[in-house]
Amino acid sequence: MAVEPSSDRVAEARRQAERAEVHVEFHQADLADLGFATSASVELVFSAGALGAVDDLPRVFRQVHRILKPGAPFVFSVAHPIAAMLEGGEVVLRKPYWGTGARTTSDLFTALQRANFQVDVILEPAPLSHPNAHVPAALVMRARKLGV
């Protein structure tokens, strides 16, 4: 299953899936609108970079919790919060920096706990060669659904 708000991106993903001869169930929807998925029916939820644009992250986490099977993992990556304070390798002090849309690691951790997830992995992959090479570009978290 794939969820994407953009109709253009859904259409392109469908074309790529057909070319690769893979079956994917695509849904054009907001990331927090997972009503099409049955409760406790999904074995893994994965998001690569999409959560940074979500306004109501707690709602997304609650919906993901609803559709995951007990103990199943939710793995996601977001832009690293520290990277949001850098521009061209220089620190840019924003008042407050989280007003840029970036969330702190503790914001994510707390929101996951409140949605009844247990965080078991937090990764900050080594940065690639770019102007901000001293700061990881991404934060990766894995949390498991607690309860039913």
Summarize the structure.
24% of the residues lie in helices and 24% in strands.
Q: Can you tell me about this structure?
A:
The structure is a single chain. It contains 3 helices and 8 strands; from the N terminus they run E-H-E-E-H-E-E-E-H-E-E. With 148 residues, it is of the alpha/beta class. The strands form 3 sheets. Strands 3-4-8-7 form a 4-stranded mixed beta sheet, with helices on one face. It has a two-stranded parallel sheet with strand order 1-2. A two-stranded antiparallel sheet has the order 5-6. Strand 1, helix 1 and strand 2 (26-28) form a beta-alpha-beta unit. The relative contact order is 0.16.
Largest sheet: 4 strands, mixed
Radius of gyration: 17 Å
What is the oligomer described by this structure? single chain
| C-alpha end-to-end distance | 21 Å
The SSE string, one letter per element, is EHEEHEEEHEE
Mean pLDDT: 87
Topology:
Layout: E1 2-4, H1 7-20, E2 26-28, E3 45-48, H2 57-67, E4 73-79, E5 86-87, E6 90-91, H3 105-114, E7 117-123, E8 138-145
Parallel strand pairs: 1-2, 3-4
Antiparallel strand pairs: 4-8, 5-6, 7-8
Question: Which descriptors apply to this entry?
Answer:
four-stranded mixed beta sheet; 8 strands; two-stranded parallel ribbon; 148 residues; 24% helix; 3 helices; alpha/beta
